[in-house]
Design goal:
29% strand; single chain; alpha+beta; 23 strands; six-stranded antiparallel sheet; five-stranded antiparallel sheet; 16 helices
C-alpha cells in the first residue's frame, strides 16, 4: 500500500462494515482533487457518491439512479463495473472489487489516459523495431511457437535472406538444420520459465565451419506473461568488424544522448548503478561522484520495486513526478521521469528520461494561489471562502457538528484612507489579517471578503459560549493600537457572529445572519460583537 502513490489508477479502500474510507492513494488525491473533502479517512462512501451525483455527469444521464446502483454494487463487496461518469473535463471508468486485508476497493481509471497509454504502447513497439533495425548485432524475436516475429537486417543477412522473408517463419526454414536444432534446444526452457542462456555454438554454412556466440532470454508481454524469446547470434569470425561497428554505433548514440536537452540515464536493473548518463542528467541531479551514482537519487527503496513492476506490466512507466529535496539542494526540485526496460552492455537495464519541471510547478502554484488567496493579505479570498462553505455544507450534512461564522468590519477605515492615504489603509488590512490569524488559530478558515470586511469559519470548536470567548479574544487583539509611521490609525472592529448546527443548515443564510449581527454591533456603538438572534429580524421569524 505504501507504494501505491505511483499507481496510475485511483484507489480507494473502504471498511466493509460501515463503508468508510480507510485509505486513498496519491493518484486518487490528484485525479479527484476537487473531491478531497469527501475522501478523508473515516468519511462514508455515501458522501463521495453524493458529491459525484451533485458535481459529476453520468453516462446514462440519471445521476440519482447511477449513484443508487453504485452503492448497491459496492455494498455487495463483489467485483462489479460501476456507472461511468465525467468529473470536470475528465471521464472516468470505475469498478469495485475485494481489496487488501478484507477491505472493499474502488478502482477509478482516467478513460482518456487509458487511450493515451494504448497509443503510447503502440508507438513503443514501433520504436523497438526501429531500435533493433539500427543495431549491428544480429537480433531476433520469437513467439512461444518458435516463429520469428521480428528480426533485423544483420540477422537476415547472416543467412543470405532478407527481413521480410525471415519474419513469420521458423529458423529451420532458412538456416542450417543443425543450427536451428541447437538453438531450439537451448531456447526450449526459456518458453516455460523466465531465464537466459549464453553459449558458443558451431554450425556450417555453404560447407564453411562457423563458430558463433549465441545469447537468448525470455521475453515477456505487457501483461507479464511469457510471450517468447529474444536472442542474438554473432559470427565470431567477423567479431573484429562487429566490435568496430558496435563502437561506432555506441559513439553515435552517446553523442546524440549527450547533446539531448533532457536528462538521459541508463542504470543496471538489479543494482541500480548508472552505467551511463548525459551531462544534462548529471547537472539536473547534482551528481558529483559519477562512480557511485545509483537510481536511489531518484527513487527511494520503498518505491523502486513498485516502479519496476509497473514498468514491466505496462511496457514502460511514463510521466512520474518526483520531488527531490536533499541537504545539498538550496530548494526542492520537481522532476518528470519516464522509464522503460533496456538491454545495455549485455545487462538488463533501465532507460531514464528525465526533465526538470520545477519552474512549471512554481508557476502553477502561483496561479493557484492567485486564484484562491487575497493578493494583499495572503488570506483566503471570497471565492475560496464560498467554496469552503459549499464543501462544509456537503460534508457536515446529517451530523451534529457545531459551527460558527464571524463577519468582522473595521471601524474608521474609510476615514483612515481619506486622511492618511491608501498605503496606510493597505498596511492596516495586512496587519488585521495577521492579528486575526493569531487570535483565531483554531479557525477552519480566515478570509478577506473584500474592502475592510473579513470573515472566519469555526467547525466543531464549541457552541455560543466558546464562540463568544473567541470573539472577545479577537476584539482584544484588534483593540491594540494600529500605528502607521508613528501615527495612531484610530482603528477598531465590529464583529457579528452566527452560531448554528452545521449538519442542518444553509451556509449562505448563516453568512447573511452574521452580516446582520455585525451591523447590529456597528449600530450599538462599534468596537464590540453581537451574536445573531431571531429577535434581530422578527418579521423573518414570526412563524418560528
Amino acid at each position: 500500500m505504501a507504494t501505491a502513490a505511483l499507481s496510475r489508477d485511483s484507489l480507494i479502500f473502504l471498511d466493509p462494515g460501515d463503508l468508510k474510507v480507510v485509505y486513498v492513494n496519491a493518484a486518487a488525491e490528484k485525479q479527484l482533487g476537487d473531491a478531497k473533502s469527501v475522501l478523508r479517512k473515516g468519511t462514508e462512501v455515501k458522501q463521495l457518491l453524493a458529491y459525484l451525483a451533485k458535481n459529476g455527469e453520468f453516462t446514462d444521464g440519471d445521476a440519482v439512479a447511477a449513484v443508487r446502483n453504485a452503492l448497491a454494487s459496492i455494498s455487495s463487496g463483489k467485483h462489479a463495473e460501476l456507472p461511468a461518469f465525467r468529473l470536470g473535463k475528465t471521464p472516468f471508468n470505475w469498478h469495485c472489487d475485494v481489496g487488501p486485508s478484507g477491505t472493499f476497493a474502488l478502482v477509478l481509471r482516467d478513460a482518456g489516459r487509458a487511450q493515451e497509454l494504448a497509443k503510447a504502447l503502440s508507438e513503443h513497439k514501433t520504436f523497438i523495431q526501429h531500435l533493433i533495425d539500427v543495431l549491428p548485432t544480429p537480433v531476433y524475436l520469437k513467439n512461444r511457437e518458435g516463429v520469428l516475429t521480428r528480426c533485423n537486417g544483420a540477422f537476415a543477412e547472416l543467412f543470405g535472406t532478407d527481413v521480410e522473408t525471415a519474419i513469420g517463419k521458423r529458423m529451420a526454414d532458412f538456416a542450417p538444420k543443425s543450427l536451428a536444432k541447437t538453438v531450439g534446444e537451448l531456447e526450449a526452457p526459456l518458453r516455460d520459465a523466465e531465464g537466459q542462456v549464453r553459449d558458443e555454438i558451431t554450425f556450417a554454412i555453404d560447407d564453411k565451419e562457423c563458430t558463433a556466440l549465441f545469447a537468448a532470454s525470455t521475453l515477456r508481454g505487457p501483461s507479464g506473461a511469457i510471450a517468447g524469446t529474444i536472442g542474438s547470434l554473432i559470427d565470431v569470425t567477423s567479431l573484429k568488424k562487429a566490435q568496430a561497428e558496435v563502437a561506432e554505433a555506441s559513439q553515435r548514440l552517446t553523442g546524440l544522448l549527450e547533446s539531448a536537452p533532457i536528462g538521459v540515464g541508463i542504470s543496471n536493473r538489479e543494482s541500480g548503478v548508472f552505467k551511463f548518463f548525459n551531462s544534462t542528467f548529471s547537472k539536473m541531479l547534482g551528481i558529483e561522484d559519477e562512480s557511485k551514482a545509483t537510481d536511489s537519487i531518484l527513487l527511494s527503496e520503498r518505491y523502486r520495486e513498485k516502479s519496476l513492476e509497473d514498468m514491466d506490466a505496462l511496457g514502460e512507466l511514463q510521466d512520474v513526478e518526483i520531488r527531490l529535496r536533499r541537504s545539498d539542494m538550496p530548494e526542492a526540485r520537481w522532476l518528470k521521469t519516464s522509464i522503460e526496460p533496456l538491454s545495455f552492455q549485455g545487462e538488463e537495464s533501465v532507460l531514464w528520461w528525465t526533465s526538470d519541471i520545477t519552474k512549471q510547478k512554481h508557476a502553477a502554484r502561483e496561479l493557484q494561489n492567485k486564484a484562491n488567496n487575497d493578493e494583499l493579505t495572503g488570506l483566503a479570498n471570497r471565492a475560496r471562502f464560498m467554496q469552503k462553505l459549499d464543501q462544509c455544507e456537503t460534508v457536515l450534512r446529517g451530523t451534529d457538528t457545531p459551527a460558527a461564522i464571524f463577519i468582522l468590519d473595521l471601524d474608521g477605515f474609510k476615514q483612515l484612507n481619506d486622511t492618511q492615504g491608501h498605503a496606510a489603509g493597505d498596511w492596516v488590512l495586512v496587519e488585521t489579517g495577521k492579528r486575526l490569524k493569531r487570535a483565531a488559530r483554531r479557525a477552519e478558515e480566515v478570509a478577506r471578503l473584500g474592502g475592510d470586511e473579513f470573515t472566519l469559519l469555526f467547525l466543531n470548536k464549541g457552541a455560543e459560549k466558546e464562540m463568544a470567548e473567541a470573539a472577545e479574544a479577537i476584539l482584544a487583539e484588534m483593540s491594540r493600537p494600529f500605528v502607521w509611521e508613528g501615527h495612531d490609525c484610530d482603528i477598531s472592529a465590529s464583529i457579528g457572529l452566527a452560531v448554528f448546527d452545521g449538519g442542518n443548515c444553509d451556509m449562505s443564510e448563516q453568512l447573511r445572519r452574521a452580516d446582520k449581527a455585525m451591523y447590529e454591533a456597528k449600530a450599538a456603538g462599534k468596537a464590540q460583537y453581537r451574536l445573531y438572534t431571531p429577535d434581530m429580524e422578527p418579521d423573518l421569524h414570526a412563524d418560528d
